Every structure is written in structure tokens, then in C-alpha cells.
């Protein structure tokens, strides 16, 4: 049985996409319990012991959806509940400590994967990290909103400097900042719609892909997705600053 701490760390560490799609991935391994090669993805065919997810299993592979981004939520939910029943710790209370640990680890990974794949921004971020590595995605202000963001920052600074007794100025600034927050939120909604449109294009190209490489068209889509994520992170911080200032 592998070291538990190391196993958990490996399970949650994203891998490079080329590594994941490689035919040399850890697709065959002996059962940890009886060393038989007669194992499926989840259980040993000889001793029936539950098997730990392969260390190079990513969230998309775990749910058997390919590297697709426009996944039917009902399909994703059905797959989640099927896998949850298979690995639920309650089913392994009378089994060995090793199997109980694997059940907990597999369930933890499954839950994290499901939460990620349900959220458009999270799953796009995850895909980009699979491809480009673990580096944090930079945040950037949308060029279209430079003037509005500059004004928001000025108003936030003014609000912080107001004396508590200046309620009229505080009320006026609060109204202005609330209006600006609505504009930022609307911009986020528009970019989220653009992101979902990019998902459809990505999936169409992904269906056609036959090797480990990505086409120029796919790389262009990834660049556009990355820009939207960059904007989302920046605007979320601005909105949080407004919320904090108005509390």
C-alpha cells in the first residue's frame, strides 16, 4: 500500500495534458493487495479489493467525458452519483483499513472533481493548468473598463478617507459604487456567455483531435479562455473591494 500522504498529494496534483494523454500513462498496475494484474479501473478482478485512482487520473478522465467543456449537467450528475455509490465509505466499514483509506481518498477526489467540472470558470482554470502546469493564472483588468475601474478606485479611496459624520458624501459615493458594481457584474455575465460559446467551439475541435497535440485553432481558443479568466479574477477582486467598503 503506498504512503497515504504521498498518495493524496499525487492525486490532487494536476499533470501536463501531454503527460495525461500519453499512452505511457499508468494504465496497468498490479493490485496493491494480491499483486494480480487482473484489475479494472475500480476493483481487482481476483480479490475484489477497491483500487486507488491512478495517480495520473485527471477530473475529465475520472468522469469519462473526454476533455470536453460543454457537458450536460444531468449527465455529469448521473456519473457523479454512480461513482459516489461505488466508493462511498459506508460500503467499506467492514473491509480492511487500507480499503477504507482508499475509499475516503477516492471520494475526496471525486467530490473535488465534481465541484470543479460543475463550475465554468473552475473547470476552464483546471483545463489550462493541466495544459500549462500549476502556475497561477495572472489577473488583468479588461481594457474596455480601464476608465471605470480607475474611477472606482478613486471613489473607494475617497470613501475610506471620509469622516464618519459626512453621511451625505458617504451615501452619494455608496450609490455610485453600487452602480459601478452592477456594471462590472454585467460585464462578467457577458464574458461568461462568451466563455460558454468558446466551450462549444473547443468541444467540436476536441472531437476531431486524434493525437496528443493541439491544433492552432484550439490554442487560439485557449488563449481567449485564459483572457476571460484573467478578467474574471480581476473583476472579482474589484467587486469584493466595493462590498468591503460598503459594509
UniProtKB/TrEMBL annotation:
<dbReference type="Pfam" id="PF00226">
    <property type="entry name" value="DnaJ"/>
</dbReference>
<dbReference type="GO" id="GO:0001671">
    <property type="term" value="F:ATPase activator activity"/>
</dbReference>
<dbReference type="GO" id="GO:0005739">
    <property type="term" value="C:mitochondrion"/>
</dbReference>
<dbReference type="GO" id="GO:0044571">
    <property type="term" value="P:[2Fe-2S] cluster assembly"/>
</dbReference>
<feature type="domain" description="J">
    <location>
        <begin position="58"/>
        <end position="130"/>
    </location>
</feature>
<dbReference type="GO" id="GO:0051087">
    <property type="term" value="F:protein-folding chaperone binding"/>
</dbReference>
<dbReference type="InterPro" id="IPR001623">
    <property type="entry name" value="DnaJ_domain"/>
</dbReference>
<dbReference type="InterPro" id="IPR036869">
    <property type="entry name" value="J_dom_sf"/>
</dbReference>
<protein>
    <recommendedName>
        <fullName>J domain-containing protein</fullName>
    </recommendedName>
</protein>
<dbReference type="InterPro" id="IPR004640">
    <property type="entry name" value="HscB"/>
</dbReference>
Amino acid at each position: 500500500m503506498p504512503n497515504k500522504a504521498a498518495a493524496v498529494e499525487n492525486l490532487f496534483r494536476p499533470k501536463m495534458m501531454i503527460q495525461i494523454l500519453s499512452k505511457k500513462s499508468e494504465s496497468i498496475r498490479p493490485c496493491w493487495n494480491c499483486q494480480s494484474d487482473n484489475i479494472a479501473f475500480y476493483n481487482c478482478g481476483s480479490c475484489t479489493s477497491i483500487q486507488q485512482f491512478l495517480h495520473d487520473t485527471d477530473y475529465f478522465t475520472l468522469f469519462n467525458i473526454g476533455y470536453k467543456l460543454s457537458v450536460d449537467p444531468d449527465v455529469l450528475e448521473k456519473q457523479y452519483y454512480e461513482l459516489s455509490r461505488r466508493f462511498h465509505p459506508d460500503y467499506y466499514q467492514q473491509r480492511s483499513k487500507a480499503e477504507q483509506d482508499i475509499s475516503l481518498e477516492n471520494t475526496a477526489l471525486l467530490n473535488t472533481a465534481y465541484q470543479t467540472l460543475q463550475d465554468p470558470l473552475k473547470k476552464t482554470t483546471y483545463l489550462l493548468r493541466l495544459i500549462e502546469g500549476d502556475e497561477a493564472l495572472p489577473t488583468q483588468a479588461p481594457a474596455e473598463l480601464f476608465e471605470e475601474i480607475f474611477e472606482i478606485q478613486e471613489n473607494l479611496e475617497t470613501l475610506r478617507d471620509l469622516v464618519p459624520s459626512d453621511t451625505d458624501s458617504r451615501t452619494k459615493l455608496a450609490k455610485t459604487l453600487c452602480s459601478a458594481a452592477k456594471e462590472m457584474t454585467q460585464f462578467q455575465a457577458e464574458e461568461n456567455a462568451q466563455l460558454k460559446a468558446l466551450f462549444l467551439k473547443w468541444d467540436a475541435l476536441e472531437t476531431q483531435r486524434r493525437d496528443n497535440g493541439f491544433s492552432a485553432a484550439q490554442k487560439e481558443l485557449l488563449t481567449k479562455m485564459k483572457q476571460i479568466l484573467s478578467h474574471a479574477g480581476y473583476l472579482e477582486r474589484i467587486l469584493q473591494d466595493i462590498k468591503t467598503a460598503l459594509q
